[in-house]
Design brief:
Structural class of chain B: alpha+beta
Distance between the termini of chain B: 44 Å
Strand content of chain A: 25-35%
CATH topology of the largest domain in chain B: Heat Shock Protein 90
Largest sheet of chain B: 5 strands, mixed
CATH superfamily of the largest domain in chain A: Response regulator
CATH architecture of the largest domain in chain A: 3-Layer(aba) Sandwich
Strand order of the largest sheet of chain A: 2-1-3-4-5
Number of helices of chain A: 8
Helix content of chain B: 55-70%
Oligomer: heterodimer
Radius of gyration of chain A: 21 Å
CATH class of the largest domain in chain B: Alpha Beta
CATH topology of the largest domain in chain A: Rossmann fold
Strand order of the largest sheet of chain B: 2-4-5-7-6
Radius of gyration of chain B: 38 Å
Number of helices of chain B: 9
Chain lengths: ~250, ~350
């Protein structure tokens, strides 16, 4: 079996250091890069396409969860985290393993063994563990405070209060915001459930708006209304949508 | 909830009271009205034992129903009725007993009939005396209960506040620090030992304080320094500390660990959001009436504010308000790239 290419991602150098030292004793592991933040990690992952990531969750700019969200292939993942109840729940099933800091070399070794197993199985058949993992991440995160999108190698982090509105577009949604228009592979239902409910409202099957962006609401047809946003967009509110809207105003 | 209807002490007073009344009645009957010794003693014993037993009933009435009657007139009517009933029962019962015993003693039976008016009037007096004392005892007990309740509530609040304060030392900080120690034991055992000692000293300080503990600025700065040293081991060149402390402020008092949540905030919103070096500035100035402390950190203006902002600040604000009785002692100010919190600590005479 070929050595497993590995990237270590953690914002604390001593934390990367100990993973590197432990890893040095395993011939199977080939550490190709170490990164101190999510953006750097994304660049290195694109460049090396590693088989395995040691990934911290809390990091500046782009955290471990958000990094996973914008990956387009399935590396095996071992989380290294100090204290994160959500992580423990969400990843019990789908991450290869999670190491609670500080961890022993024995504990590290058993995680690596699991990763080796997982990777050798994955190489023979396609599986969707990262997809399941991503879904679990989202379910466990509760209310969103920012949305990460990616186009090619460009990653954009959009704070939710800068979102104007969201429209459905087949299997995707289009997010219209101060930072431009971004396509995201997610359902309207997901955004309806995870955007802060006192700021966002679904006014129609196909649109969710930011309340702060409303410029005017006018009657349109018998049951519907037309909502005009500050950015100029005009969106139709269905009878139910208008009811939701009224409840919040 | 239900209390024994009288405590031991009150029982003693209760019995003493009735013995005194009985002695007075005996003295009047025997000494003033010249009744026989045996009838005087029996009369006084029977009347007063009966009234005393009724008195126990009255106590229960006051305790369980007296409070429900509201309004002065209603209360008065209620007690007049109850008084009449009490006296009626008292007289009927004691008269029946005495008649049973001395029915053929005409002198005594005449005396009883003559004394009836005086007895009834005295009975009314004693009735209202008893009721007043009962009410006094009751409200005294209520007051005590309330005081106890308030005391336990305020100590609960203080405990909650303290827990809040302690939980400011986030598990994240603790476990990440231990992880750094774990890493250093392999690469630099001496540094690992230094860090363990600093961590222990810092934890000990934070665990022994009380919500109202006051401390000198020097001591607080020492422990703040331990905390920042530990964080600097974790983040190395990602954070820089700049201190401007007026040395003459060193012995001024401030609430223990009050700086800690502010420093943790500076690390959380500064170092944890920036890829470049975060500068944390610590300043202290003072005169005879106050100590002013400023803690500021640089931050990445593009960083998206994360959840949990503000709880640290409002905890500090609440604690300052609880200690000094003023809510204007904390202020904060955000500019393009720095966030600054200022504490205004009034000077206190106590040391």
């Amino acid at each position: 079996m070929q050595p497993i290419s590995t990237i270590i991602i953690d914002d604390e150098s001593l934390a990367r250091d100990i993973v590197k030292r432990y890893a040095a004793d395993f011939q199977m592991l080939n550490v190709v890069a170490e990164c101190g933040d999510g953006f750097e990690a994304l660049r290195q992952i694109q460049a090396h396409k590693p088989d395995l990531l040691f990934l911290d969750i809390q990091m500046p700019k782009l955290d471990g969860f958000e990094l996973l969200e914008v990956l387009d292939y399935n590396p095996a993942i071992i989380f290294t985290t100090a204290f994160d109840q959500f992580a423990i729940k969400a990843f019990e099933m789908n991450a290869v393993d999670y190491l609670l800091k500080p961890f022993s070399k024995d504990r590290f070794e058993s995680a690596v063994q699991k990763a080796i197993q997982r990777i050798s199985i994955e190489k023979s058949n396609v599986n969707t563990s990262l997809e399941t993992l991503k879904e679990n991440v989202q379910e466990s995160r509760g209310t969103l405070d920012r949305v990460v999108t990616r186009l090619g190698s460009k990653v954009t982090v959009i704070p939710v209060d800068r979102i104007w509105y969201i429209e459905s577009a087949d299997d995707y949604v289009m997010i219209y915001s101060e930072l431009g228009n971004h396509l995201k592979e997610k359902t309207m239902k997901f955004f309806e459930e995870h955007l802060p409910t006192n700021n966002f409202v679904r006014i129609h099957r196909g649109s969710i708006i930011n309340l702060a962006q409303i410029a005017a609401i006018d009657p349109y047809t018998k049951d519907t209304h037309m909502v005009t946003l500050k950015c100029g967009a005009k969106l139709r509110a269905s009878a139910d949508g208008y009811k939701n809207l009224r409840a919040l105003l | 909830m239900d209390k024994p209807f009288l405590t031991r002490n009150l029982w003693i007073y209760f019995i003493a009271f009735w013995m005194a009344v009985a002695v007075i009645q005996f003295a009047l009957s025997y000494g003033v009205y010249g009744q026989e010794l045996i009838t005087s003693i029996t009369d006084s014993l029977i009347s007063n034992i009966v009234f005393a037993v009724l008195g126990i009933g009255l106590w229960n009435m006051v305790r369980y129903s007296g409070k429900q009657v509201s309004g002065f007139l209603k209360n008065l009517a209620y007690h007049l009725a109850s008084c009449a009933l009490t006296i009626l029962i008292w007289q009927v019962v004691s008269y029946s007993f005495l008649r049973l015993l001395f029915g053929n003693n005409d002198v005594f039976m005449n005396f009883l009939a003559e004394a009836l008016v005086v007895k009834v009037l005295t009975g009314v007096l004693i009735y209202f005396l008893l009721i007043s004392v009962d009410f006094l005892i009751l409200s005294f007990e209520e007051m005590q209960e309330q005081a106890e309740h308030e005391a336990s509530l305020s100590s609960m609040l203080r405990e909650a506040e303290l827990n809040m304060l302690r939980s400011q030392i986030r598990p994240h900080f603790l476990f990440n620090s231990l992880n750094s120690v774990s890493s250093l034991t392999l690469s630099n055992p001496q540094a690992a030992q230094d860090m363990i000692i600093k961590l222990s000293e810092f934890m000990r300080h934070s665990l022994t304080l009380g919500a109202e503990t006051m401390n000198t600025l020097n001591d607080e700065l020492y422990h703040a320094g331990l905390y920042l040293d530990i964080e600097r081991v974790r983040f190395s060149d990602r954070m820089k500390i700049e201190k401007t402390i007026d040395p003459k402020c060193g012995e001024m008092m401030l609430p223990a660990m009050i700086l800690q949540p502010l420093l943790e905030n500076a690390v959380k919103h500064g170092v944890n959001t920036m890829l470049t070096t975060c500068i944390i500035t610590l300043k202290a100035e003072c005169n005879e009436s106050y100590l002013g402390i400023s803690i500021s950190n640089t931050f990445d203006p593009d960083a998206v504010p994360r959840k949990g902002t503000g709880t640290g600040l409002s905890n500090v604000q609440k604690r300052m308000a609880a200690i000094y009785g003023r809510s204007d002692l904390l202020s904060s100010n955000t500019t393009d790239q720095t966030f600054e919190v200022k504490l205004h600590i009034p000077a206190r005479k106590d040391s």
